[in-house]
Fold these 3 entries.
Entry 1:
Amino acid sequence: MNVCVVSWTLGLTAADKVVEKVKALGLDGVQYAGDHRDVRAADLRDRAKAAGLKIIAIDPFNAGPADPAKATQDGAIAYYRKVVDFAAEVGSVPVTLQGLSQWTRNCPDHASAYQRLLVCCKAVDEYARSRGVRTLYEVCNHYEVPLIHTARQCHTLLSDIGSDNVGMILDSFHMNINEPDPLQTLRDNARITAIYHISDSGRGGIGSGHIDFDAHLRALRENGFTGDVAIEPVLEHLTPSHAPTTDVDRRALDEAIRRSAQKWRGYVTAAG
């Protein structure tokens, strides 16, 4: 089980800066969350390999259309095909699809929004499969995305996509908002969860809120989870989704990430 970080929280996109920071934090890898147009795929691939780090996913952050009122199905698919091409060049790294929901905001109702999302997911996943790239869908809370807020809803989407190439990402912070019983959600979905995201109930590091991460680990491992974890904390005064911009805040975030990694690894060791 690799212990990684989601890179958008760091406020970094350049390959050398991301790799240098992840290595300094003592982590095993990174979920690269940014604009693929800001970095050369080969540079990210080669720098991560040289540092002994794993890239666990390409996660296009803020991947919605420039003007949501003009979003189209074809535009969404075209954008994500480029993300898939980038991921293939990085090294057949999985691509997350939840950003496709941002392309549905101009749909007149939920049914048409879901239909657009489904068509887009099918098309992008089919293309990804042809490029040897897996796809993943993260379940995010209703404050951040317009569709797919619970694991049950994600199950329905994955079933409708009808592809064994698509996996799930579960996130402790998002589950704390939308899942009635996060532990049961983890038990029910451990086998199809490819990545588990770690941030506490207020989106800080482990210990800053009320989530029992030891119990989360046990629920995952006892029910067949074989994926990686990615730490995704945000400082309290920067929630929900702002990266640090000052040296003081950067040091505080680094400490939250290191402490979270240490605690999680301690739970893993104790569990045997």
Entry 2:
Amino acid sequence: MASAIQNQFDSLRQRLHQSQLGGFWRWWTAELAAMLPASWQERVRHAQRVLLLQLNDKSLSLTLQEGAKGERVESFDLDQDLSLQRQQIADLLAERELDEVPRCLLLGESMVLHKQLQMPQAAEANLHQALAFEMDRHTPFQADQVYFDQQVLERDKERGQLHLELVVAPREPVDDLITTLVDRGLAPTAMDVVAENLPLGLNMLPAEQRHRIPNRKARLNLLLAAVALVVLAGVMAQSLWLRESQIAAVEAAIDEVRIEARRVQNIRAQIEDASEAAGFMFKRRAENRPTVMVLAEVTRIMPDDTYLDRLRIWEGNVQMQGKSDNAQRLIEQVNDSPMMEKAGFRGSTRLDTGTQKEVFDINAAIVTP
């Protein structure tokens, strides 16, 4: 249950990030951040640090990204003893206060496939699911064989199209990298692609595989904020109670007037509703001929060698289905009627072998009186 809720939350956050509102929010927060004092900007960048993890055949390198700056933290040889290396990494993270920093696995360009494609703009709300459904059309893989993410490059509102870039990585080699990191206590929270020594800003790791790192400082801040909200709510409740006790005396004096005003409003609403209903019925009668008149006219114009199996009259139209010795002449007779026009066959006529009559289906419009 909690996993499903988290998946829904991550999907909603991704949609918001890719929407115009998300773009405006990023621009607005960037402008506000630029107006902060230098010391505050440094604290914001410090809180947004990311530990970048890069693997090759022989080594694991850790880089701390803080804003646009990257600082090489350490490099480990993968041939070392696993338990010893795991302890070394844990000690390093604790010493540098990086144990609560998000970790992002960086894939090289040689491990991913880029493809630019177009999707209907209506699919943006569920873009990730739509790409997973059509993965075998755009790549040689099924959706369960790859990790993938997308970037919206352009929104063509005139054509209702999204121009986006799909980035795909096969699961098998990437799973080996993730296992290597997990064995060393570095389960990743995100997975990105490095291009020109910079991450692309993707997260190809599915929500259910993203490692959750508890932030103790954030929890403490949330607890303090909750306490402050409770105290504030208590003060506001007391103030409202005092105010309501003063207002109660005034409201008691005007209750009778208020009830009388509501009665007047109800009567007025009933009168307006009755007037609108009467006007609607009068308008409907004026715009449409009575069904009995249309029925009489159909009876008048039908020849003696013709009979109807089905007659339908609705919203200014008449549909007649039946059999006749000469169905073609019925079109002229219906069009000659002052009550009907635009008569035509619905499909072709055919011969009924039992009665040797032509089976017809005619539709005509009723002339507005």
Entry 3:
Amino acid sequence: MKMRSQRGAARISAIWMIVVVVLFFAALGYAYIANEDKVKAESERGTAVAAADAMEVERDAAREDLLTITKPLGFYDRVTLGKTSDAAQAAEGLAQLRATFPDLGEDIEDFERAIPVLVSSYSTQLSKISTLDQRITDLEAEVNTAKAATTDVASTKDVEIEKVQQALADALNTSRDEKAALETTVQERTDSRNQVDGELRTERGVTDTLRRETELAAQASQTRFANLTKQLEFMKEREKPDGAILSVSKQLGLSWINRGSGDRITRGMRFLVTSGNPAAPREKGEIEVVNVKAAMSEVRVTMLRDQFDPIVAGDLISNPLYDPEAKRNAVLVGRFSGIYNEAELKVLLADIGITVQDKVDLDTTYLIVGSELYVDADGEPVEEAIQPSETAAYKDAAQIGANVVSINDIQHFFRK
């Protein structure tokens, strides 16, 4: 029993020895591997350090290059050392150059291309300045020459001034003598004018007396003429009517007359309507032309004297200036304004067959009277307005018996 126990113990010791040896060699293997990794890591570290050193050298070289460019370019902080140019400030500076120098176009994007253009522009400006400087020098020479000439002229001027002053003194003495003579003449003329004024006032008094007597006699004559006219009115032949009412439409409120464009009818003309009985005519109202056809015209009633005596077919119409057939002449006297000025009045009269004359003669049919005049026959302004009845044309028309028609009648019977 004891012998087996010893062999077992020897076997255990041998196993432990083998284990120890195996562990030893394993440790040696791990140590070798770890050493290889260390050597590799140290090699890689050396390579990295060398690369970092190379990059640092390159960075320093690039920084030196930037500093070398910064110094001539500018746009850097001169207080802090090592600062490089600011790209934004450089771009802003280039934009300011473009705004200042028109020769720099938008296609010039850097200072390298801008500098030749600036040098050329500067050289051009220097040339212009040089030309201007030369011009200034020439002008200064001309000014000096002119000053010298002015000095000579001033000397001559002083001599001439002395002569003129002497002549002026002589003229003043002569004018004083002439003034005294003129004052004497003026006084004599004034006395004479006062005497004439007195005589004129006397004559005016006589003239005013004669004029008043003449006016009174004229008024008396006019009164007598009016009375005679009224007494003989029954003997006058009644004026022939200018047309008649063709038909009347009560439903439409319209009427038609037997005169049209062929009878010189124009739109806006007005007619007085009388009853169709020529033995006992009576005024029934007024009508106005609203539409013109060739042989008839449409009219509307503008005034009815008696609603129980309406306008009917067969009633007669008349207008103081209208005549469908006769050729008539008229003369204008006075001032025309308002609805019809003189030019428009002449057109209206021509449309209804009336020729406007320059002066009254035996062929004058109408004298058309406007407002008062403020200028005389020569077109000169007058202090007091001239009434048309005071004109020679009015008096001539009265002598030949021409019909006198006021502008108010025309404005009433001829609407625009």
